[in-house]
Design goal:
A 6-stranded parallel beta sheet has the order 6-5-7-8-10-9, with helices on both faces. Strands 15-14-13-16-17-18 form a 6-stranded parallel beta sheet, sandwiched between helices. By secondary structure, it is of the alpha/beta class. Helix content is about 40%, strand content about 15%. One of its GO terms (biological process) is isoleucine biosynthetic process. InterPro entries: DHS-like_NAD/FAD-binding_dom (IPR029035), Myo_inos_IolD (IPR030817), THDP-binding (IPR029061), Thiamin_PyroP_enz_cen_dom (IPR012000), Thiamin_PyroP_enz_TPP-bd_dom (IPR012001), TPP-bd_CS (IPR000399), TPP_enz (IPR045229), TPP_enzyme_TPP-bd (IPR011766).
């Protein structure tokens, strides 16, 4: 490495006071470029392993697509540190950021990755992924190149010029979707920016995307950095401890309840030993547990008090208990509309919001407890002593939970009727039947469409991390890239990517990356020939089938394409196989599990059928005026639901403003 180490002469006083070593360390500097300093600092960050006796790198590596603005500066620095901080080449900037985010999710936010891009389209391709990380509270470090600080050669290739602000670049698009944003305009600024970035990335309340925009001339500038800045350091993960007054207020609500329910969110999984604390709390106090998309797996699916998925995509057991409960303990969840049934599901309950982020803890007019899930549950449990929910409530919950598990087994073990296409439940069942010999269990990865609903209800996971579904942002295209990140994080587990044909077409390039890296995935493509989920929603709102299924789209003289996904996968270097039955799917999955590289298995599925059991109302606004009778009927049903919920109504707003149509 091209660097210069120098030592400043110590004062005689330092030697006389016995602080010679400290003074030397404090005054030794290393001359590095800003890019070299950044990479060296990231490589020095460590995290304590589960055993508490060893450490691992905080950053598992850097995904990079080099281009104008990052290849010369950051690219050279990454090359110098490629052993300590591996660099992974990807094929799409958004996809590689998804992979980095999935890596952090699979590590329960205890380890993470960085991503670097060029200054123009590469940087703006990060915006969707950054929004996903922001919504899901997942850490990722974004390192896009930027234009020259000197502005001497402006406008440079790929530069976005703002006619009103000379300081704006394409990277400013990342500000709204970053938890912390900084533009490094001098190498010395890294001394402050990097520790701040690490703090945000490792803080339970702040965790999310961090963007450090790196002007290309600054990347190449040299500076004399303190040597101590690059000493290996073990990172502390920060989470607030709940206050006594908040705990007392929550206890007052809980002790007054007889029918409490715990809703477990992702914060339970991200809390160190959070699932253990949840299980102990639920068992001691006889409280059933329902799980959000992010929280699924916090309690084993077979646990007697696990009521299953909650909300719009929820189980009948969980939703019945949620609607009857007089107290809902929302632990580590941001209470999005799919969890609350658009704020109708917890209609009879007082809510206790337990969350490391005060913004989330206050939702649903909750009695808030701002703190880490494990710490808060332990503190509440210690004060509750032997208090328990009404025994009749606990018994009712156990009965409902048992019945739901029987439903799950029945739906996933069923077979399509003769001549009928399978639907998602049949595919999920086939995958789980072929995993019976895997003691650790598979990791199911998914993101958008119907599949997250079916998986939320029907996927059986016995341990945290076995369910990896991105449904905070419901981002099509996350699936395959997310599977790559999950497999990098958990190479000992079989990663099963469930993806529809629509999402596959939107982003599939990381199949090639998985083959190149030797990171084996099993990708199951459910081909329903279009956007089946949104097609059903369209019709549920009274709309005609339009522009969703391929058969309902505007077409040229050649008609809709007959896409051979298996052949496409083979063209990317993976194994590809199309099957025509559930039995054939099971055989293909057995072969995929034994394969030495990524396998893509394709099966045609029914775009109309879903699992009827469970579910809850979800508010989707229906047009108030339409020439279609079906839309008018859907609007009437929508207004009935609004009236049942009470509160906000679009018609009330129109009346208030004098614009009633």
């Amino acid at each position: 490495m091209n660097m210069r180490i120098k030592e400043t002469t110590m004062s005689p006083g330092a030697e006389r006071t016995g602080k010679a070593d400290e003074a030397t360390a404090a005054t030794t500097t290393i001359r590095l470029t800003a890019a070299q300093a950044l990479v060296r600092y990231l490589a020095a960050q460590r995290v304590t392993d589960e055993d508490g006796a060893s450490t691992s790198p905080l950053f598992g590596g850097v995904f990079a697509i080099f281009g104008h603005g990052n290849v010369a500066g950051l690219g050279e620095a990454l090359y110098q540190h490629r052993e300590a901080l591996p660099t992974y080449r990807a094929h799409n900037e958004q996809a590689m950021a998804h992979s980095a985010i999935a890596y952090a999710k699979a590590h329960m936010r205890r380890r993470m990755m960085a991503v670097t891009t060029s200054i123009g389209p590469g940087a703006t391709n990060l915006v969707t992924a950054a929004a996903l990380a922001h919504v899901n509270r997942l850490p990722v470090l974004l390192l896009p190149g930027d234009v020259f600080v000197s502005r001497a050669p402006d406008p440079v290739l790929q530069q976005v010029e703002d006619f009103h602000d000379g300081g704006v670049s394409a990277n400013d698009t990342l500000k709204p979707v970053s938890r912390y944003f900084d533009r490094i305009v001098h190498p010395a600024q890294l001394l402050n920016a990097l520790p701040r970035a690490i703090r945000v990335l490792t803080d339970a309340a702040l965790a999310g995307p961090v963007t450090l925009a790196l002007p290309q001339d600054v990347q190449a500038m040299a500076y004399d950095y303190p040597a101590a800045f690059f000493e290996p350091r073990v990172v502390r993960f920060n989470a607030p401890t709940p206050g006594e007054d908040e705990l007392d207020a929550a206890l007052d609500v809980l002790r007054a309840a007889s029918k409490p329910l715990i809703v477990a969110g992702g914060g339970v999984l991200y809390s160190h030993r959070g699932p253990d604390a949840l299980r102990a709390f639920a068992e001691r106090h006889g409280i059933p547990v329902a799980e959000t998309q992010a929280g699924k797996g916090a309690l084993p699916w077979s646990h007697p008090l696990n009521a299953g998925a909650v909300g719009v995509t929820g189980a009948s057991a969980a939703n019945a208990l949620a609607h009857e409960a007089d107290c809902v303990m929302a632990v580590g969840t941001r209470l999005q509309d799919f969890t609350t049934g658009s704020n109708t599901l917890f209609a009879n309950a007082k809510v206790i919001g337990i969350n490391a982020n005060a913004f989330d803890a206050l939702k649903h007019q909750a009695t808030s407890v701002v703190g880490d899930a494990r710490t808060a549950l332990d503190a509440l449990g210690g004060r509750l002593a032997d208090w328990q929910a009404d025994p009749a409530w606990t018994q009712r919950a156990r009965t409902l939970c048992d019945a739901w598990r029987e439903t799950v087994i029945a739906r996933t073990n069923s077979q399509p009727a003769t001549g009928a296409l399978p639907y998602d439940a049949h595919v999920i069942g086939a995958v789980q039947r072929t995993s019976a010999t895997s003691p650790e269990g598979d990791i199911a990865v998914c993101a958008a469409g119907t599949l997250p609903a079916e998986l939320h209800k029907l996927w059986r996971t016995g341990c945290p991390g076995g369910y990896h579904v991105e449904y905070g942002y419901s981002c099509m295209g996350y699936e395959i890239a997310g599977g790559l990140g999950a497999k990098l994080a958990r190479p000992d587990r079989e990663v099963i990517v469930f993806v529809g044909d629509g999402s596959y077409l939107m982003m599939n390039s990381e199949i090639a990356t998985s083959v190149m890296l030797g990171v084996k995935l099993i990708v199951v493509v459910l081909d329903n020939r279009g956007y089946g989920c949104i097609n059903r929603l369209q019709q549920a709102c009274g709309g005609a089938p339009f522009n969703n299924l391929l058969s309902d789209c505007l077409q040229g003289p050649l008609g809709a394409p007959a896409i051979d996904f298996a052949a496409h996968a083979r063209a990317l270097g993976a194994y590809g196989e199309h099957v025509d039955s559930v039995a054939a799917l099971e055989g293909a999955l057995v072969r995929a599990r034994a394969a030495d590289r990524t396998s893509v298995v394709v099966i045609d599925t029914d775009p109309a059928r879903t699992t009827d059991d469970g579910g809850w109302w979800w508010e989707v606004a229906v047009p108030e005026v339409s020439p279609r009778e079906a839309v008018r009927a859907a609007r009437a049903a929508y207004e009935t639901k609004l009236a049942e919920r009470g509160g906000f109504s679009p018609r009330n707003v129109n009346n208030d403003t004098g614009n009633d149509a």
